[in-house]
Structures are given as C-alpha cells and as structure tokens.
Inverse folding.
C-alpha cells in the first residue's frame, strides 16, 4: 500500500515537473508518431496519412465484432504510449470518452472522427433502447465517402499538430488520399445511376443508411433495430417486398453469420452478395494488406450486380 502511495506521489511530482504548459508537446524528431485507431477504416486512413512517419495500430483485434467491443486494460495501456488516438464517435465506441479521461498521458491527442459531421438516426431511432444500443443513432458515417474524406482531413490535421516538423507530409498524404476517395465517390455515383432497382435489401444490421442516401438508394435492413433479429412478421414483410419489387439479390454482411440473409434468399430464390461495412477485417486480410478503398470497390461491384446497374 505504502509503495502504491509513494508511486502515486512520484507520478504526480513527475507530471507537475513536466507540465509547464497545457499544450501537448510535439513528437521528438527521432521517432515515429504513435497512433492508435479503434476500427478498421480509421486504422487504414491513419496509416495512409501517416505513411512512413507513423506507427499505426488497430485497437480492435482482427475478426472481432466491433459494436460490442470494449478494450481490456492491457489494450487501454497502449494509449499511454500513443501520441494520437482516433475513434469514430460515442455511438460506435461508447467506452472511448471515459477511457480517454482515465489515461495519464498528456501528450495524447484525441480525435473524435465524427465531430462536425451530422449523424443520422436509424429509421427506428425513437424505439426503446437496450444496453448495447447506440441510442437510435447510426454510427456508420465512414460508409459515406464524403464523410470518409472529411475524417481523413481531420486525421491529417491531428498528425500535423502532434508532429509539426512533418506537417506538410501528413497534409499531402491526406490530400492525395482524399482525391482517391473523391474519384471512387464519382465512380459510385456513375455506377449506381442506371439500375434495375434502387432498393438495397440487406440481410445484415443497419449500416448502409449513409451510403444509400448519398447515392439515392432505398435501404432496407433486416435488422432495423440494431441488434434485434427480425421477427417472423418482419421477415414475411421483407419476403413480400422482394416479390413485389422483383428483387433477385439479398446482401449479407462481413464477419457475421449470414443466417437471416440466407433465410430470405432461400424463401425467395434470391442470390447472396457480400456488402462489406469494413468495420473490421480478419487476421489474414490484415496480413494481406486489404484496404478500405479495395473493400469499397468490391462493394460497388456487388451493388452494381445486385441492383442490376448498367
Ligand atoms: Zn455496424
């Protein structure tokens, strides 16, 4: 006990000696910027912007479902050694704000990727909320490519502020990457212009509301209320709608059992296509260096096939 108190006193003393100014000190020029990002898109944006000057790590273990993830103490410790921490928003990572408050690292710069971007509600947004629910808000901002671009800019500015000696480098990388996102956004717009249907039927959780709105699609998720599986009546509704609209494809999500999508497909004779929300990737994909842009290119290909676009 005594040792703990002594240690705490030592820490306080060390912190107050070091703490002459409230500004975060810049990264020493002899080492790379250390960045921790919570989910895959942020990790990919950060490593692209950081290039060879940053050491970026993904907090989410590969393959793990992202919405229910909470970091363990040893994972939180990584923030003690980081210069920048990037998370999506308090609906995606409800634990982030309190974890950051508990971190004794005055160098740490925290980026709420969604700050300044308008969040939308899920269609059921006013329905009762349960423990793990996001309060009816849709956290999947990154699936709107313009939002992704805004987030990349924000990451570039955070890196520039933490490591001013390399500010131009980060800003240039961010600008290059934003140009690629704009080009992809353009391909989406053109690729989804003339389609047999504008109804995007997703047998996965409500994640593509932002994407659908951007390209003027009607988004139907079989899980409109977050986690809750559709009940029999809702499934019947979906099957009816598919028949009425003559839909021939149902999309399923990454890293989860496609049980519901499967059920709908079997009932209607529709085919299955992957629509990848890019929340997380598998260990193999991480090793192979899969990128957010590659995932979104694959999504465009599947959307064009599933919606019958010319
Ligand atoms: Zn999600």
């Amino acid at each position: 006990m005594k040792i703990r108190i002594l240690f705490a006193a030592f820490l306080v003393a060390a912190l107050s000696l070091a703490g002459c100014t409230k500004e975060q000190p810049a990264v020493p020029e002899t080492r790379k910027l250390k960045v921790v990002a919570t989910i895959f898109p942020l990790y990919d944006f950060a490593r692209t912007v950081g290039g060879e000057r940053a050491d970026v790590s993904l907090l989410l273990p590969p393959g793990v479902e992202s919405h229910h993830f909470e970091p363990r103490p040893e994972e939180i410790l990584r923030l003690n050694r980081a210069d920048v921490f990037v998370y999506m928003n308090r609906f995606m990572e409800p634990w982030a704000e309190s974890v950051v408050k508990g971190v004794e690292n005055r160098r740490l710069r925290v980026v709420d990727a969604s700050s300044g971007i308008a969040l939308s509600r899920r269609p059921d947004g006013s329905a009762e909320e349960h423990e793990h629910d996001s309060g009816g808000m849709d956290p999947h901002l990154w699936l709107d490519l313009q939002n992704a671009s805004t987030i990349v800019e924000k990451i570039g500015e955070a890196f520039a502020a933490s490591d001013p000696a390399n500010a131009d480098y980060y800003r240039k990388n961010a600008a290059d990457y934003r140009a690629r996102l704009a080009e992809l956004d353009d391909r989406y717009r053109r690729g989804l212009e003339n389609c047999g249907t504008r109804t995007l039927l997703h047998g996965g959780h409500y994640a593509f509301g932002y994407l659908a709105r951007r390209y003027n699609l009607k988004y139907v998720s079989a899980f409109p209320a977050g986690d809750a599986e559709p009940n029999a009546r809702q499934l019947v509704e979906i099957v009816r709608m598919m028949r009425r609209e003559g839909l021939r494809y149902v999309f399923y999500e990454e890293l989860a059992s496609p049980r519901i999508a499967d059920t709908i497909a079997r009932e209607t004779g529709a085919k299955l296509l992957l629509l990848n929300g890019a929340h997380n990737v598998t260990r193999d994909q991480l090793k192979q260096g899969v990128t957010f842009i590659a995932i979104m290119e694959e999504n465009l290909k599947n959307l064009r096939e599933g919606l019958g676009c010319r």
Q: What stands out?
A: The chain is about 45% helix and 15% strand. The first helix runs from residue 2 to 18. Residues 67, 140, 205, 207, 277, 279 surround zinc ion (CB under 6 Å). The longest strand covers residues 199-205.
